[in-house]
């Protein structure tokens, strides 16, 4: 398929059916997400790769979401740097299907549940987001209705279509990158890569095997298994300070479909990606 040799945006332009949900504001035409079907039963979810913020979400001074320092829009709070390119590389090698979000997580983070404050974050890693913090409950629901729920509905529909096409559930990998250092943390992450799933469901042979392969192929990297991140189901109680991520994209695409053993999330430290493009081929083997 042409997605493996061309830019995703070109694929979307030539196949508008891949972009099923349009911005509901009436002022923009950029799709909320894009989908491209591959030949394999692998599905890559790349929901933090987008950096688009609609113009109607600028303040009176023309600042996106009212954010005072434009440099904040280039930080991890707004985009997972490099993961779009990594996702494309893995898709090209494996002929995977891809679901990718186009909008910045600062508009509405579809990898947070809507009742979480950082789904429409009033602040993010020390940065104030005025047009988010000013939302009343009705305004917040309107934002979710425009940017969150249609994207989640599109994800669910796409997974159903792939399952129907292949006659079985797809193997789902959630693609992310992370910042080694955050403004509000004094402890840089020592890990280079993290592979994680849902530990409360017990061992996952596929995840365990993938971690072993990565560690054998890249012994110089610190590859974490369910650390420094791991997923959790909604409502799960965890000890104070225990880092668990409530991930609606994997919850709706995997847990609700009773497919937990055919899933893991891949987090790559952003400082590896721009300097080591030639080393990323090990991800797609």
Brief write-up:
With 285 residues, the protein is of the alpha/beta class. It has helices at residues 8-14, 83-94, 130-133, 137-166, 205-217, 248-255, and strands at 33-36, 42-46, 97-101, 123-124, 127-128, 171-178, 193-196, 223-225, 231-232, 245-246, 263-269. The protein contains six helices and eleven strands.
What is the element layout, followed by pairings?
Blueprint: H1 8-14, E1 33-36, E2 42-46, H2 83-94, E3 97-101, E4 123-124, E5 127-128, H3 130-133, H4 137-166, E6 171-178, E7 193-196, H5 205-217, E8 223-225, E9 231-232, E10 245-246, H6 248-255, E11 263-269
Parallel strand pairs: 2-3, 2-6, 6-11, 7-8, 9-10
Antiparallel strand pairs: 1-3, 4-5, 7-11
Helix pairs in contact: 4-6
CATH homologous superfamily placement:
Zn-dependent exopeptidases
Helix percentage: 25-40%
Low-confidence stretches: 1-6, 15-25
pLDDT averaged over residues: 85
| Strands in their spatial order, largest beta sheet | 1-3-2-6-11-7-8
The largest pleated sheet is described as: 7 strands, mixed
Overall 3D shape? globular
Task: Give the H and E element order.
Answer: HEEHEEEHHEEHEEEHE
**What is the correct CATH architecture?**
3-Layer(aba) Sandwich
CATH fold field value: Aminopeptidase
How many beta strands in the DSSP annotation?
A: 11
User: Could you state the oligomeric state of the chains shown?
Assistant: single chain
Distance between the termini: 19 Å
Based on CA atoms alone, the radius of gyration comes out at 18 Å
- Proportion of beta-strand residues: 15-25%
- Counting H and I runs of at least 4 residues, what is the number of helices? 6
Q: Tell me the name of the CATH class.
A: Alpha Beta
